[in-house]
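Hello Y.,

Per our agreement to keep a running log of every chain we model this quarter, I'm adding this entry. I've kept the format consistent with earlier entries: sequence first, then predicted structure.
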Amino acid sequence: MTLSNENPQPSPCFAMLKVEAKGIVYDKTIPLASQSIWKCNPKNVVQLTTQQQHQLNSL
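Predicted structure for the entry above:
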């Protein structure tokens, strides 16, 4: 799933990255559930209340 202007939906997938002296790298300390670096689960998507959205927009 990707973000688009027509159907803005967040992806349930993420990859944990970290910054090191050599650059941005995949964090290998996070256990893999599959052969992919992507962690995909619908529970990764958090629904914000209208108040929470307004608070974020004011930052």
